[in-house]
UniProtKB/TrEMBL annotation:
Residues 1-19 have a biased composition (Low complexity). Gene3D superfamilies: Tetracycline Repressor, domain 2. Residues 30-90 form the HTH tetR-type domain. Keywords: DNA-binding. Residues 53-72 bind DNA. Residues 1-33 are annotated as: Disordered. The keyword DNA-binding applies. InterPro entries: Homeodomain-like_sf, HTH-type_TetR-like_transc_reg, HTH_TetR, KstR_C. The keyword Nuclease does not apply. This is Cholesterol catabolism transcriptional regulator KstR.
């Protein structure tokens, strides 16, 4: 994702580990943290970003406001932590069950579609968590890096059919960056769900399609001829076509 695309996989993994190390160690603390995050998600699902107020979260989670601030120093910290938990659950699900598909291209499309639909299912909640992610500063760096690392790994597993290597993570990072850009476009009503699905499928085809893929050849011809429609679609995946060779090496 955008926040992690300049980081190496190992750096992002270290940040994710640091985030987990900061989590409560006792069962009562973990339960309190769970209630706080559940309350955050419930409020966000009902009213979006503006509905998540620290006092309202504390009241719904049945904790003191001071206790809430000890766990989460800010609203942004709270929402990004909730997003990280959601991606952790997705990561566990994809680790247990490999996506269907005979090729890396097919498997990646299945995984990306699953993530996209899960986020589009609740626009208010997604808007709240995405805004927090985009607003996050250095004080939430570990949580932001964990989200990026998990997103990249979930997508990269579709390539690797197991634990991905660094090249596969790099390819996944390109896809996750395009995914985030299109999610924001959908949230701000500049793109429909169908537009998002088309652009993401195009991105994956350009990255993972074989050199003799009819669609890839057609797109490259359209771009070369300056075809407005298809070239415009391809522009959503700026620079991706040139990465095709590296992608083929990673999936071969």
């Amino acid at each position: 994702m955008t926040k992690s695309s300049t980081e190496t996989g190992s750096a992002a993994a270290s940040a994710a580990a640091a985030t987990r190390a900061d989590e409560p160690s006792t069962s009562s603390q973990r339960e309190r943290r769970r209630r706080i995050l559940d309350a955050t998600l419930a409020l966000a699902a009902k009213g979006g970003y503006e509905a998540v107020q620290m006092r309202a979260v504390a009241e719904k989670a049945e904790v003191a406001v001071g206790t809430l601030y000890r766990y989460f120093p800010s609203k942004v910290h709270l929402l990004v932590s909730a997003l990280a938990r959601e991606f952790r659950r997705l990561d566990q699900r994809t680790e247990r069950s490999a996506p269907p598909g005979d090729t890396a291209q097919e498997r990646m499309k299945v995984v990306v579609e699953m993530i996209t639909k899960s986020m589009q299912r609740d626009p208010n909640l997604t808007e709240a968590m995405t805004r927090a992610f985009m607003f996050a500063d250095a004080t939430v760096a570990n949580e932001v890096e964990e989200v990026g690392f998990l997103m990249d790994r979930i997508i990269a597993r579709a390539l690797a059919q197991g634990e991905p290597d660094e090249l596969q993570l790099s390819i996944a990072r390109v896809v996750s960056d395009v995914w985030m850009s299109n999610l924001v476009s959908w949230l701000t009503r500049r793109s429909s769900a169908a537009d998002v699905a088309t652009r993401l499928a195009l991105t994956i085809d350009l990255l993972l399609g074989t050199d003799d893929s009819p669609r890839r050849a057609r797109l490259h011809t359209a771009i070369g001829n300056g075809n407005g429609n298809e070239a415009g679609e391809a522009d959503a995946a700026t620079g991706i076509a040139s990465a095709g060779g590296a992608a083929d090496a990673a999936t071969g």
